[in-house]
Structures are given as C-alpha cells and as structure tokens.
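For reproducibility, we list the full input for the alpha-D-galactopyranuronic acid complex.
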Amino acid sequence: MAEMFDDYLNTEVGAVTCATAAPAGTSRTITQTIFVPPNVTYDGKGETLKADATAMKCDLTAGEQGESQRPYFLLAPGASVKNVTVSYPGCDGIHMMGDNVLDNIAWPDAGEDAASVRSYFPGGKITIKNSNGHKAADKMFQFNAPCDVRIENFTGSEMGKLVRQNGDTMFELHIDLNTVNVTGVISAVVQSDSPLCYIRHHALTYQFTGSGDKSDRVFRDVPPGNVTAY
Ligand code: ADA
Ligand code: CA
Ligand code: CA
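The corresponding predicted structure, in tokenized form, follows.
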C-alpha cells in the first residue's frame, strides 16, 4: 500500500501512527495522522482528538484553508472510524480511500474540510452517519474520486457547502442524503460540475445564510433530472 500511494503519503501525510492500541476514550493531542488499516474499525470510545498545530501543519488563519494540512485519520479501504470528536484545529479532517464508514463523528469546527476522498484513491461506498459538523468555511465533505456516498442522520451548521465534488471533474458520484439538517449554508448543499452526479434525498432540511431565493443553490450545477426525492 505504501508503494501504491507513495506520492500521496509523501506529500500529504508523512509519518503515520498505526491505529493498533485501543483508545482510552478521553482527550489527547496527536502529532501524526492515525492510519486505520484495511477492514479495521477504530473505536474512539468518545475520545476528543486535537491536532498539534505545528506537527500536523494546521492552518490557524481565518477559514483554515491551507492545502498542505495533515489529516487526523487516513482510512485504508474498508476501514472505519466511530465515536470520535475531531476538534479545532480541524486540519484536513479525515481522508478516506474508499469503502469506509464514519459513525458518530463530531467536527465542532471543521478545518480545510471535515472528510474527503482524495483523487489518489479508488473511492467506493462511503457512509457518514449519526454525525455532526460545524464551521466549515468552505467544504464539509469533498469527493475527488468516484463514490457512492450515503450521509444519514447528519446535523450541520455554518458551512460553505455540505458536499462538493471536486471542481471541473466529470466522474460518476452518487449521493444519498437521508435525514440531514443543515443550517447557515453559504453556497450549496451539494455542488458538482459533473453531469454524472446523482442525488437522492429523504428528510433533508436546509437553511441558507442571507435572504433571497437560493433554490438554485441547493443542488448547485447538478442537472435537475439527476435529483430524486424519496
Ligand atoms: C481543493 C483543491 C483540490 C483538492 C481539494 C481537497 O478543491 O483544488 O485539488 O485538494 O481541495 O480535497 O481538499
Ligand atoms: Ca481543499
Ligand atoms: Ca482537503
């Protein structure tokens, strides 16, 4: 795996800590990305993680949009994380390679993004459930590779976009939003430039910042025929 993702690991992550020891369920500061091996579930047992800003290259300027920040977690294919608070500084959140589940994750103040599938990765089925995310100056969840995404029981506030398919990419992305409530949305609930972005939604509620009709921003630039309510 190290060879396959050599470029990514060297430029984006550096040294990693393998998630082997069982977390104590308290608060701790991390200085390296936590790597969760294939098909392993990391159970934080309610722990609060805080990134050491220097070691993790966190951007502490307003909006925290630096692109060289380390992720808190790197999830190998089939790996999952549950019961963790990713606190400020949010850095580059959680990187997912594909076929991952995030369950009961809180991002009280997301960094550059809260979770993403980078373009280096195969992608696959991604489930984000029973979670909440706040203060994402730009994107909450970012997808740069083909995925089948299910966001279920998610509450969020203050964000540019809940979901962003990487700008100018044309790959196929499926997004299912089930029981999702987002408030303080600045620019879109989902934004994509791809004609192959398909959205299904159920019990989705949203509130935009400012006044005026924002109805064309809910699924921004997504072909209306690709959106289904169920
Ligand atoms: C920006 C950037 C992409 C990618 C993305 C991300 O959109 O242009 O190349 O890095 O952020 O995954 O955070
Ligand atoms: Ca980014
Ligand atoms: Ca990012």
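The chain is about 5% helix and 55% strand. Residues 67, 112-113, 116, 118, 142, 144, 166 surround alpha-D-galactopyranuronic acid (ligand 1) (CB under 6 Å). Both points were considered when choosing residues for closer inspection.
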